[in-house]
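Design job #97: recover the sequence.
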């Protein structure tokens, strides 16, 4: 049973496992003043923690992630972009934080669908979270191609964040795409490989009637955050294919 930390403002429940794509949705019913710390949610120095809280049975109502402070000295502040309309899970152990070494920024990964992980990046200014826009790596690789919305879909996706310093981080991003390989593979410029044998009878592509296939996409990206909290890609290369 996790240890409970109680204060006059909040109780933070520490949880030590992380959800994986494909697992069933997680649910948890929170007490009125109970906040569940996400995986690696405590910032360097221990003065802030990313924690989850929701209302109602299984937290189906008004679920959010929050920035909380040590000893509950300040009211928890919701993180923009991680709320009831964007999330798949309601348990704190289903979310993972990655703090920069100076605790001025934090990345959070979580599921938006059963098999797809999303990433949010935040700057912490004066004790408040400010969302930072992130580049779409897959779209950056595809560039100015003429792919239509129905040329492919994303079946699974994961992103791993590794901080290289206070303002630099590496993203290891993988996606499993499904679509017409004759269209997708040239557009991915070496960032994609065909995954044979995953579908016994693939449907035809709506573009040219050819059989569709699963395409693995892998990219490793080094990014830097500017003083104005804008993310710039410094290096982009094909990632490791499993």
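Job complete. Output follows.
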């Amino acid at each position: 049973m996790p240890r409970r930390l109680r204060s006059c403002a909040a109780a933070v429940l520490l949880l030590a496992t992380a959800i994986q794509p494909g697992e069933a949705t997680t649910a948890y019913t929170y007490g009125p003043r109970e906040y569940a710390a996400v995986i690696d949610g405590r910032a360097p120095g221990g003065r802030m923690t990313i924690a989850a809280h929701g209302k109602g049975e299984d937290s189906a109502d008004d679920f959010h992630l929050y920035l909380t402070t040590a000893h509950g000295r300040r009211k928890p502040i919701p993180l923009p972009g991680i709320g009831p309309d964007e999330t798949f899970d309601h348990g704190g152990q289903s979310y993972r934080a990655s703090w920069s070494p100076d605790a001025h920024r934090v990345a959070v990964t979580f599921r938006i669908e059963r098999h797809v992980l999303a990433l949010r990046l935040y700057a912490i200014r004066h004790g408040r979270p400010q969302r930072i826009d992130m580049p779409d790596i897959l779209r950056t690789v595809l560039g100015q191609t003429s792919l239509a919305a129905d040329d492919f879909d994303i079946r699974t996706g994961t992103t791993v964040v590794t901080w290289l310093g206070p303002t630099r981080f590496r993203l290891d991003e993988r996606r499993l795409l499904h679509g017409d390989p004759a269209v997708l593979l040239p557009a991915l410029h070496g960032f994609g490989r065909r995954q044979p044998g995953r579908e016994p009878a693939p449907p035809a592509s709506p573009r040219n009637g050819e059989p569709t296939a699963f395409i693995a996409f892998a990219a490793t990206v080094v990014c830097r955050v500017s003083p104005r909290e804008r993310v710039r890609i410094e290096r982009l290369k094909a990632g490791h294919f499993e």
